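Methods — Computational structure assignment.
A single polypeptide chain was analysed. Its primary sequence is given first, followed by the predicted tertiary structure written as structure tokens.
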Amino acid sequence: MKIKKAVIPAAGYGTRFLPVTKAVPKELLPIVDKPMIQYIVEEAKASGIEFVILIVNHGKEAIEDHFDINYELEDTLRKKGNNELLSLIDGLSEMIKIVSIRQKKPLGLGHAVLQAKNLIGDEPFAVVLGDDIIDSEKPCLLQMSEVYEKYGKPVIAVQKVPREDVSRYGIIKGKQAGNSIYMLEDVVEKPSPDKAPSDLAIIGRYILTPEIFEILEDTSSGAGGEIQLTDGLKVLLMKKGMIGYRFEGDRYDGGDKLGFLLANIAYAMKRPEIKDKLLECMAGYIK
């Protein structure tokens, strides 16, 4: 079955970026001149996704506004004949069908995904974290969709990380079944380096089956009173099996200050009008 729906959890407070995120949703922080979440939605569309469900909280209305029509701005640009700027926002509202659901309490990623249950129905779907940017020739979600269609099992994106960093991630245990495919046996949330079953970390891309909703409903709250998606994944793995897919592409953690800055540099280097001047400026700072 083709993956047609995607859930984008975007209800976090973005505390690592305070004070700017006091008033601006983290997902709207720009990578060069485009908000992070637009890269995510564009990846979804390029992967065949037709319907996006945003999970938001109070204060995230600006995300919805970004993908809505702004008649006044568009009319002003049109009257001024500024077609270049108009082209940057024209079509945002028609890019893909987007609805939003408010997560009324911050009860964890698993709880956020659970909010989409009624809109997903009885079909497989994608979950994409709103601050995980992956730059790849073939969209990461499309790569994962093809893996799902081949194996018929839930798929999670994984990436090698330095052993000293494993305590920051969910880590997989599994047997390699191809260059990029791992048949999972377990997922371990933030293990210490000496207890980690591998150096393959779970990254913010998932293709899940609807059984996850019943599992999450029965999942007890963990640390901080939150329902952890990882706990639900462990049960789903036992019921359905699960694939770890080592995707092709460069990943940037937009929720981390260094990752955010590296993403800006990487995408700026793709812009001919910026690249040379940027290199010149960076060389000056290095001196």
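Note: The first helix runs from residue 36 to 46.
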